[in-house]
Every structure is written in structure tokens, then in C-alpha cells.
Amino acid sequence: MTTVLKLGGSVVTAKDEPETVDREALADAADAVADADDELIVVHGGGSFGHPHAAAHAVSDTEGTHDATGVREIHDAMGELNSAVVEALQDRGVSALPVRPLSVASRDDDGTTTFPGEPIATMLGEGFVPVTHGDVVAQAGAGATILSGDEIVTRLARQLDANRVGVCSTVPGVLDDDGRVIDRISDFETVASALGDSEATDVTGGMAGKVRALLELGTPASVFGPAELGAFLSGDRPGTLVHREQ
Ligand code: IP8
Questions:
Q1: What's the complex ipTM?
Q2: 220-232 pLDDT, tens per residue?
Q3: Where is substrate bound in this sequence (predicted)?
Q4: Taking Cα atoms as reference points, which of 228, 194, 227, 234 lies closest to residue 211?
Q5: What is the CATH code for 2-242?
């Protein structure tokens, strides 16, 4: 059983404090991952590490830069967060290893992303837990743009034929207009008004962008909060199940 797990950047960092890991939240998440039996790929977001640097250099998933210093700043900040996540996992006996997207992924000039699955598949075969993250990547004709952790999740889930996908966010699921968790989403139109316009939420798509991308996957995906991470990893489907009816 292969599971792709996204740890939201705002789950593992203190979102309003630049480059600050939320040590307690990271410890809780790492404890839950250490207890999991599935073959796992962990993907984390940028939180207070990648996003402030990306904003400072006006880089997004659609706006690129040729400023190598800026690209390095974003990538280095993500490297620090990635080291913290890998270390927290290794401290608990998880065979976690870093996978840095800038060195392996790229985009062509229409924005299509290539993220090779082979290194990850080989790591999994050898019993390692690849830990990758949203990053800045080279894009033909644009310099370098932001590749979100969410896009990596959907790419890798497809390429590696994952059985389960989990997105651990700061909210307990996808919320309706009254703030209640929606149990199941099988098409975007029925939840569009509650989610708002994806362009307006954040540069890498916000919840609307996540739901749209997850609906395109054949694999059922769960969106849930940190309190439910252990339940998800032990096989439950907490929060919101996002799966298009076939
Ligand atoms: O937080 C963005 O990843 P996300 C990563 O998953 C950077 O959208 C570098 C801002």
C-alpha cells in the first residue's frame, strides 16, 4: 500500500513568524508518521520558509525569475525546513531521506511539470521514506517558478500508482459556507461557491486549487486536520473525501 501524504506548510511552521518551525506540531506529525505501516512518501509545503521569500522575489507558479540569488534564497529556506522535517522523522526511527525538487524537476514553457518518479520508487523499494517539498524549479522561457507541494502530490500519486492520498491542513477538512466539514466532494461545481475563486485565494491555488487537482486524480484523497493524521495513517478517511465518481 503506497500513501502520499502532504503536510501543509502552515501545519509544520509558525505561519506568521519568518522561518520558524512549529516544533510541537512537527513532533506530533512525526510521531504519527513513525507509527504508520504503509509505504509513505511525504511532501511538505513552504509555510513561513518558502512563501515569504517567494513573495519578496515576486515569484509564483505563474511568475518566474532569472535572479539566481533569489532562486537560491527560496530553495535554501525550503532546504532548512526540509532538514527539520527529515531530522524529526529520523529521530523517531523513520528512514526518511530528502528529495530536493530544484535538482530533479522542471517545467516546460506551457507550465507542464516533469518530476521523475524513478528515484522515489527506488527509495521506496529500498525501504526509505522520501521527503520532498514545494520548491522553486526551472521553467523554460520563464527562469524559475514555484512548484507547489500540492502539484507534487498529484504528480507522484499518479506516477507511482498510489493507493491513498492524504492532505493534512490546518483546517479539519474542506469547509462549507457555514464552516462545517464537507464529508465528500465528487465534483467541483457543487462546492465552488464555498471555496471561492481559486485565483483569489493564494498564489499556489489555496483550497479551491487543491480540490480541483485532487478531483483529477483517480485515487481517493482525504483532506483533514493535524488531529486526524494518526487516524488517516491507520487507514481511516477523516475530514473530507475528494473523489470524482467514475
Ligand atoms: O506551500 C510552495 O509550496 P506549497 C513552496 O505546497 C514555496 O504551495 C517555495 C513557496
A1: 0.98
A2: 999 999 999 999 9
A3: 51, 149
A4: 194
A5: 3.40.1160.10
